[in-house]
Amino acid sequence: MEKTGKNIYLALKVLLFSLLLAAFACAIRSAKSGIIDLKIEPLSCELASIELSKIDMLFKIRVTNPSNRDLQINLMTYEFFVNNELISRGDYIERPINVRAKSTRTLDRFIPIPEEKLTESVKISLRERKGIYRVKLQYTLSTGEIREKTLILPIKGMY
Fold it and tell me: What is the pLDDT of residues 23-51, one digit of tens each?
């Protein structure tokens, strides 16, 4: 009887150790698969229209989902800077966007620059197509994670 009790005790110890080892392995795998992010690249920044009250810029970005599962961007906001001056801010997308696994999407957005934000240095930068154009994007994924990217944009002009 004593031998049987020792065998059961040893079997329980081995079983407990195996369960702990399996749980640890699953936790590591879960942590690795939990790191999900999109790759966002600037494509272009173009002067789209000039009106008396505002200027419209057309921004194009490429969004790549390198993961093995589909992702949804629930919200994406932007802040547009010219030579470190905040010129415009708002929503980059108006509704949730799905990005399929291992695929790429192009997102376009007309961004208005109101007349009151057109300082002399901004006008010169736009006219001469010089300066530093940055867009700071903040987006929320369907997983609830909030991410932020700052893109330096290549600029093309209409004039």
Answer: 666 555 444 455 577 899 988 888 888 88
